[in-house]
Structure formats: structure tokens, C-alpha cells
Amino acid sequence: MAKNKEACIAILILLIFNFMNLVLVKAISIDEESSEKVELMYIYLVSKASYLDISSNTATIRATLKAKSNVDKVLITSRLQKKVNGEWKTIEAWTVSKNGYSCSLEKTKSVSKGYEYRVFSTMKSYKGDKSESVASFSEVVKY
Question: How many CB atoms lie within 10 A of CB 69?
Fold first, then answer.
């Protein structure tokens, strides 16, 4: 009788594991078939962007940040980066901050031909003693 009880328990455990695998496989299948995009949910941020344009050896760096209207202060630090030996190196960085909920930055910098460039920005929104930080990258520009 004890052996029958042990066998029943073993079969029950196997059935539970098999059921769990079926549920997991189905969940993965649904996720892979989904056409919905996964988007980050921010507490204070509404929109952010970093841009880079290069013309006549001059890079124009732009970054914008818009937060919800109840924030106290916003800050952008943008870095112009150049790819050297496979690594991104910061050439120059600029910071701007404003009381309120929106901020933008626009700077220019001379650059050399034969490299890839991008803008990497960190953006911060402040509300009282709380803050939210996000990163933003421009497209890579080959020049």
C-alpha cells in the first residue's frame, strides 16, 4: 500500500511539472507572437530626445527634455562622443538646467572626418526631494 501511495505522489508531481512546462511554453509563445511594444513608464518624464547633425566639419548637438508640469527643475547633460578603436570617447560635455518642466540644449563643436559620432545625454527631473534620471542617445553619424 505504501508503494502505491509513493507511486501516486510521484505521478502527481510529474503531472504538475508537465503542466507548469505547458503553461510556460504557452506564455513564451504568446509573448513572441505579440505585436505590442514594451515601453518604459516614467514618473515625471513626458518626452526626451538627443540629435546630432554634422556638416562642414561642425557637429550640432541638440537635446530636449519635457517633464510633467508639476516638476520643480530639469537638467540635461549632453556629451559629444567619438568612436576610437571600438570605444566611445567623450570629446566635450555640456550641462544646462532650468527651473520648470522643460529644457533644451544646443551646442556646436568642430569634428574631424573619418570617425563615427553620437550624442549621449543624461536627463534628470526633480520633484521635491525625489528625482528621475534617463539616458538618451542620438543616431550614430559617420563623418
Answer: 10
Half-sphere exposure of 109 (CA within 13 A, CB side): 21
Q: What are the pLDDT digits (tens) for 4-39?
A: 666 656 565 655 555 444 444 444 444 555 556 656
Burial of 9 (0-12, 13-18, 19+ CB in 10 A): exposed
- Which parts of 10-115 are beta strand (E)? 45-55, 58-67, 73-84, 87-99, 102-110
Which DSSP symbol is given to 61? E
Residue 44, CA distances (Å) to 104, 123, 125 in order: 16, 11, 7
> pLDDT tens-digit profile of 51-95?
999 999 999 999 999 999 999 999 999 999 999 999 999 999 999
Residue from 52, 40, 69, 65 nearest 108 by CA: 52
Contact status, residue 66 vs residue 47, Cβ threshold 8 Å: yes
**Is the entire prediction scored with pTM above 0.85?**
no
